[in-house]
Amino acid sequence: MVKPVIAVHYCIDGIDFDIVIKNLKEIKEVAKNMTDYYVFVLPTTKDSYIEAFYDKDFNEVKYEELSKQLMEEITKLNT
């Protein structure tokens, strides 16, 4: 069985950089301690939200799509 994945999209709009880093680390630790999921905490400038992905959600094509979407979000934040 594939371990589930949680993607936590955390809104960083208007928050100081030092606090953002601290909060991202704390959110990841809390989520890892509360679940047996792989945890990704991703900064966003939109509303915060959580997505969960389970083994039934994945096949090779869907995994590639997820990977592409996550990289696009990261690229948007770096530009």
Distinct helical segment count: 2
The number of domains: 1
Radius of gyration: 13 Å
Pick out the low-confidence regions.
none
Assembly classification: single chain
Strand content: 15-25%
Mean pLDDT: 87
Structural class: alpha+beta
The number of distinct β-strands equals 3
Helix % is: 40-55%
Q: Which of globular, elongated, flat, extended, rod-shaped describes the shape?
A: flat
End-to-end distance: 37 Å
H and E order: EHEEH
Report the sheet with the most strands, covering strand number, pairing sense and barrel closure.
Answer: 3 strands, mixed
**Order of strands, widest sheet:** 2-1-3
Structure description:
This protein has 79 residues and is α+β, with helices and mostly antiparallel strands. It has one domain (5-78). Helix content is 47%, strand content 24%. It has two helices and three strands. A three-stranded mixed β-sheet has the order 2-1-3, with helices on both faces. Helix 1 (17-34) links the parallel strand 1 and strand 2. It is flat. It starts with a strand and ends with a helix. The model has no long low-confidence stretch (mean pLDDT 87).
List keywords for this structure.
alpha+beta, 79 residues, three-stranded mixed sheet, 2 helices
Summarize the structure.
This protein is of the alpha+beta class and 79 residues long.
Topology:
Blueprint: E1 5-11, H1 17-34, E2 38-44, E3 49-53, H2 60-78
Parallel strand pairs: 1-2
Antiparallel strand pairs: 1-3
